[in-house]
Amino acid sequence: MEGVTSNKVVAMSVAVILLLDFACSMAAATTCADVGVQIQPCVGLLQGNVASPPPQCCDGLAAIQTYEAQLGINPTCNCTKGLLFQIPGLSVNVQFSVDVQNNCSVSLGFSLDTNSGC
């Protein structure tokens, strides 16, 4: 009888651990709003008001690169480009996107150019 009880305790403990792990992963889920927070320091650069990316912009692009690893390229790209389309005065082309990523030592799986797809 004692073996059956300890098996139940182990099974319940595993179930609780799995539920906690699931809850934590859901709480840590990345949203498009998270991407927006990270792209915000790059707005002046993307509008052509700043010559080189500020450190906060590079940090944000690095965070977006991490989100890309978690979520995949297409969801991250679609979210980022959706946000970029909302920025007034946006002036991003393919070469600019490459330069920004190179200056920040970041390699996104997509261009920040709003004329290219995901």
UniProtKB/TrEMBL annotation:
Full protein name: Uncharacterized protein
Organism this protein belongs to: Persea americana
